[in-house]
Design goal:
two-stranded antiparallel ribbon, globular
């Protein structure tokens, strides 16, 4: 069996120190999987997960456990000259970013995009007989669309595991907090935080 992790900067391991490992590497060791593939990309969106999985599936690697890290649903994926671009509430302050977050973005739209993305991921994983599991980073999305298998989603988000705080305006992790699973980092878990995520994923999968 192989392990594949998809997501954003958290599974990438951003802000970890040299020699420290993100939760995917730790989970790989706990599960004793044959191979480990980290497909996560810095700053990506929930619907980026569909693209990450599609690219991975084209390699036709069988017998996979797939773990999807659910990031901030407010992030918006669009394309410019065939290349993926991301609008983020904590990103640049261009006119496009201001327009989207000032005039278009809403909780209803965010949760709609998240729901249809999870429906797509579960359908794709079923097609390839992948075992798929999902963990939210710092949100509590209402998985309300019929057809979503909520039993595959961890009951706690990562920040709930940590007892950490979020910024209600940006829907991102509150920066530079003194939480033991984050300190001294700005927006990402430290090694202890990654270990806790890996432990919870391991117990959920097993």
């Amino acid at each position: 069996m192989n392990l594949v992790v998809f997501g954003d900067s958290w599974p990438v391991g951003t802000e970890l120190q040299k020699g420290e490992l993100p939760f995917g590497d730790l989970l790989h060791k706990k599960l004793g999987t044959k191979n480990y593939y980290n497909q996560a990309e810095q700053g990506s969106t929930i619907d980026s997960l569909v693209i990450q999985l599609h690219k991975f599936m084209k390699q036709k690697i069988q017998d996979c456990i797939c773990v999807f890290f659910i990031t901030n649903p407010a992030r918006y994926l669009y394309f410019e000259n065939g290349k993926e671009k991301i609008l983020r509430p904590t990103g640049d302050k261009t006119s496009l970013t201001k327009f989207y977050f000032g005039e278009v973005q809403s909780d209803d739209l965010d949760y709609h995009k998240a729901n249809i993305s999870i429906l797509a991921l579960q359908k794709m994983c079923h097609y390839f007989n992948y075992k798929d599991y999902y963990v939210e980073g710092w949100t509590n999305i209402d998985w309300k669309y019929l057809g979503i298998d909520k039993d595959k989603i961890l009951p706690q988000s990562a920040t709930e595991m940590f007892g950490a705080e979020t910024n209600t305006k940006t829907l991102e992790l509150k920066k530079f907090q003194t939480n033991e699973y984050i300190i001294p980092n700005k927006y990402h878990p430290n090694q202890k935080g990654h270990e806790l995520i890996a432990e919870n994923l391991y117990n959920f999968i097993k």
